Amino acid sequence: MDEVQVVVAHAERATLRVGDVFLKVDADQARTEVEVEAMALAPVPTPEILWRRPPVLAIAAVRGTVLGRLGRPSTTPSSAWAAAGAAIRMLHDAPSPPWPGRAGRSIDAWTAELDSECEWLVTTGVLPAELVTRNRRVAEAALRPWTPAFTHGDLQIAHVFVDGDEVTGIIDWSEAGGGDAVYDLATLTLGHEEHLHDVLAGYGADVDLDVIRAWWSMRSLLAIRWLIEHGFDPFMPGCEVDVLRSRR
User: Fold this and answer.
1) What is the pLDDT confidence band of residue 1, given thresholds at 50, 70 and 90?
2) Where are the beta strands (DSSP E) in 109-205?
3) Cβ atoms within 10 Å, residue 204
C-alpha cells in the first residue's frame, strides 16, 4: 500500500494523498457539490474525478508542479505565470455559474466581515491598530460594483499546476461561482507582487491595480484569525502579515 500523506487537515476538511489519488473529506457536502459542478463547467484543465462516496471525493493527481507557495520565492518562469493569467481569462470569459461563489458576496457582506475582523485584530492585540487601519483604508477600493464572472474563488498559487509554460490543472473548486474577476487575480498574486505583470500580460485585459492591491489587503485582514485558529502561521515571512506591512 502507498504511504498516506496528509496534504492539509483542519476542523472543516482534510485532504489525503495515496499514490496518485487525492481523497478530499469535507463535512459540508454543499461545498463538494459546488466543486464537482464547477469542474464540469470550467473551460480550463481540472482534475479527473475518480469516484465520490460522501463525505469523500477522490480525484486524480494533476501532472506538473504547483505555480508556487505563499511565503516562498517562486522559481517558476514568467512564461508559466503568464500562462496562468491566460487560463484565468478563459475562465472569466466563460458563462458565469448560476450560483454566487466566495468572490460573489455582496458589498455589505464583505464590509461587515471586514469590520468584524479588523476589530478582532485590534482588540486582541494581534496587529497594531495603525497597520489594521491603513490596510482597512486600502481594502475599501475592492468594495465597488462588479460584473459577475466565472470565478474560482480560492485561486491560491498552490492550486495552479504547470508543466513548463502550460497550465496542466487547477484544483480546489469548492468556493467557485459567479463573482468579482479581480478577486481571482489578487488571490493568485498574493505575496508574489513581482509576478503581477506576468499574470496580467497573459490575462490580456486592463485591470485596475488599485483594486488588486485592495484585495491583497482585504484577503489578508480576513484570513488572519482563521489561520491562527486552525493552526497556521500568518506571521511567517512573505505571508499575510508581511503583505499587510508592505501596503502604503
Assistant:
1) low
2) 149-151, 160-163, 166-170, 177-179
3) 10
- For residues 69 and 155, give the distance between their C-alpha atoms in angstroms, rounded to a whole number: 12
C-alpha cell belonging to residue 138: 486600502
Report the helix count and the strand count for the chain, using DSSP H and E. 8, 10
Residue 227 contacts residue 234 (beta carbons within 8 Å): yes
- The answer to whether 83 and 166 have CB atoms below 8 angstroms apart is yes
147-170 confidence digits (pLDDT tens) = 999 999 999 999 999 999 999 999
Q: Supply the CATH number for residue 206's domain.
A: 3.90.1200.10
Give residue 33's identity as a one-letter amino acid code.
Answer: E
The parent domain of residue 153 ranges over: 64-246
Q: Is residue 197 part of a domain?
A: yes
Question: How many domains are there within the chain?
Answer: 1
Cβ–Cβ under 8 Å, residues 69 and 207: no
